[in-house]
Write a structure and sequence with these properties.
The chain is of the alpha/beta class. The chain contains 22 helices and 13 strands. The protein folds into four domains: about 90 residues, Gyrase A, domain 2; about 160 residues, 3-Layer(aba) Sandwich (Rossmann fold); about 100 residues, no CATH class; about 170 residues, Isoleucyl-tRNA Synthetase, Domain 1. Helix 6 crosses helix 7, helix 7 crosses helix 8 and helix 14 crosses helix 15.
Length: about 600
């Protein structure tokens, strides 16, 4: 299905051609003066210089051709040329209803999916094992999840990879601390030759306490720090006991991480970590050396990635430090090798804090320069801004610490629950209100974040995000629930014989031409869905979906207040209303699913 602006541009472009001008001048845009018209074309203004004619002369000639076209196939309700040469356009209700009927019949609601689906890998999440998720992990998880869903909706095969931090010094710190606390464990006995225990020697709660204790100790105890480094080295060299202990750390951590990501409605296809890329590093580094890309500098092995066109310094990409240790650049290059071998992706997208922009510039340039990826593989880094408190500083707990993500989720769900329970007209008991609050709270949290452009910082305001009014997740859900309620009452009426079921269903198979301004505004908004999705997909921008479903919710609520849907005496008109709001519900539910949340049955 064509996007509405493309369809209208084709019509107006033909009128320009029929008038003796180039079709390119017929570009149609949404009017910036909705009080005057719905769409406009400014091509006559642009063409005036090329054709040495007054803009109004060109506009009048085009309008005349449009009127001739319209007599044969009605597209416009109103067409006019306005000084100094604008062409103002108002869409014919029949044409708009026809587009929506086509949209309603299409599985993807009129979206033009990829003709040749691409394989894509999205690297997002990035938690470290043995540490609880905190609010610093929020944006990567929910932005990445939404982008994954958008790319899939548009027809691609998308692999979401959590990319765990499971290989570095933190492993040695945990192991060394555990050794000091429980030296009798068989993992630390070089002479032990039996089978190691199946059960981990710690719970997730104990593990989460061990790491910060070890990290703090390493900062003040040089001997402990040295031992932790030695333990890290032994583990990375394949020490049997330490590898077995490491597997326990991974299993306990991943099970907990999966549960916390489930609460966020975030799902990863693969749970690879830095450790999975380690086997690819030696051959990768050797090839870079053999091909002449890697060179020694002050004992380190580097690849120069600066380019002549750079306006600021881009340091070399360091592969191996002088002490033989690898860096983040190496452990981000190796997964590229792994992904090319396993998936041969056309695109790899990374979600991290925007402060890592230079790091990914170095990594991507190194990958291209050394031939890890072909030139046609798209490497994209989406750097997101900071979630700040009302004071404009990075969000903290009241005690000044970094808040655990599960506490943040609980806090916003409590805010929603209190709003529901404080409502004098509520129809829910406490248990139902708690279940509904979990759904609405997640929507409030995700929408509050995703409605901002990813690269920008934003203020996290629980009271505003949890509001049922304004540009918030709960407002979008309330709109969907309102439509569900109307459709449920309609179904009851059909079952009770209060509506002519056969006739209503037959009439409702098509979208009816609008009979009021509010109905037409709702239809116009619906018709822009595929255009919005194309932009959100090309720009990897979930905030475009947020903006659209907010505008669509406003358009529906205006329509709802201006029309008596269920008590409309004209059965044909009522059936048209029902079909229109059913499509509205479908579009809104598609939108929130792409953002990663769902609507309850009632609020």
């Amino acid at each position: 299905m064509k996007k509405i602006l493309d369809a209208l541009t084709q019509v107006v472009g033909q009128a320009f051609v029929d008038s003796g001008y180039e079709a390119s001048y017929g570009k149609v845009t949404i009017s910036n003066r909705p009080d005057l018209c719905e769409f406009q074309c400014n091509g006559a203004m642009a063409g005036a210089k090329a054709y040495r004619k007054a803009p109004i002369m060109i506009a009048n000639a085009v309008v005349e051709k449009l009127q001739e076209q319209n007599a044969q196939t009605p597209v416009w309700e109103e067409i006019s040329a306005v000084m100094p040469g604008f062409i103002n356009l108002k869409l014919h209700p029949d044409f708009l209803a026809g587009m929506l009927t086509e949209m309603n019949e299409d599985e993807k609601l009129g979206c033009q999916c990829e003709a040749e689906p691409k394989t894509m890998v999205i690297d997002y999440g990035g938690p470290n094992v043995a540490k609880p998720l905190h609010i610093g992990h929020l944006r990567s998880a929910i932005i990445g999840e939404s982008i994954k869903r958008i790319c899939r909706y548009m027809g691609n095969q998308v692999i979401g990879d959590v990319h765990l931090g499971d290989w570095g010094l933190q492993m040695g710190l945990i192991m060394q601390e555990l050794k000091e606390r429980q030296p009798e464990l068989p993992y630390f006995d070089p002479a032990f030759e039996g089978e190691y225990p199946v059960e981990a020697p710690f719970t997730i709660g104990e593990l989460e306490e061990i790491y910060p204790a070890a990290s703090g100790k390493s900062k003040v105890d040089e001997e402990f720090s040295r031992q932790a480094h030695d333990t890290t080295f032994l583990f990375q060299q394949g020490d049997r006991g330490l590898v077995a202990l490491w597997k326990h750390i991974i299993n306990v951590s991943v099970n907990d991480l999966k549960e916390n990501y489930r609460k966020l409605n975030v799902d990863f296809d693969v749970w690879y970590g830095e450790s999975d890329a380690q086997p690819f590093i030696p051959a990768m580094v050797e090839k870079m050396k053999a091909d002449g890309f890697a060179r020694e500098s002050q004992g380190a092995l580097i690849v120069d990635v600066a380019e002549e066109t750079d306006t600021k310094e881009v340091p070399p990409c360091i592969l191996v430090k002088s002490d033989g240790a690898t860096l983040y650049s190496t452990t981000d290059l190796a997964p590229i090798v792994q992904r090319v071998q396993e998936y041969d992706p056309a695109s790899m997208i990374y979600l991290t804090d925007k402060r890592q922009e230079m790091h990914f510039t170095q990594v991507f340039r190194c990958a291209r320069k050394t031939g890890l990826v072909n030139e046609d593989v798209n490497l994209t880094h989406i750097g997101f801004g900071t979630m700040n408190g009302k004071d404009g500083k990075p969000f903290k707990t009241r005690s000044g610490g970094v808040m655990r993500l599960e506490y943040l989720i609980s806090e916003i769900q409590d805010a929603v629950y209190n709003r529901i329970m404080d409502n004098e007209n509520r129809s829910m008991e406490e248990e139902e209100a708690k279940a509904v609050s979990a759904v609405i709270g997640l929507a409030a949290l995700k929408y509050g974040d995703l409605s901002n452009q990813a690269s920008k910082d934003y203020i996290f305001d629980i009271e505003r995000f949890a509001s049922f009014e304004g540009n918030t997740g709960p407002y979008i859900l309330y709109t969907i629930v309102r439509i569900k309620s109307i459709l449920a009452k309609c179904a009851q009426a059909l079952e009770g014989g209060h509506m002519c079921a056969d006739e209503s269903i037959e009439i409702a198979d098509v979208i009816r031409p609008a009979s009021s301004d509010s109905e037409k505004q709702l239809q116009l908004c619906l018709a822009q869905f595929n255009e919005m999705m194309d932009v959100a997909y090309r720009e990897l921008a979930p905030h475009k979906i947020c903006q659209y479903i907010y505008e669509l919710s406003n358009a529906f609520n205006q329509f709802y207040h201006n029309n008596k849907i269920l008590t409309e005496p004209d059965e044909e008109k009522k059936a048209g209303f029902i079909r229109l709001i059913t499509l509205t519900k479908k579009v809104l539910e598609t939108g929130i699913d792409l953002l990663g949340f769902e609507a309850p049955e009632k609020m």
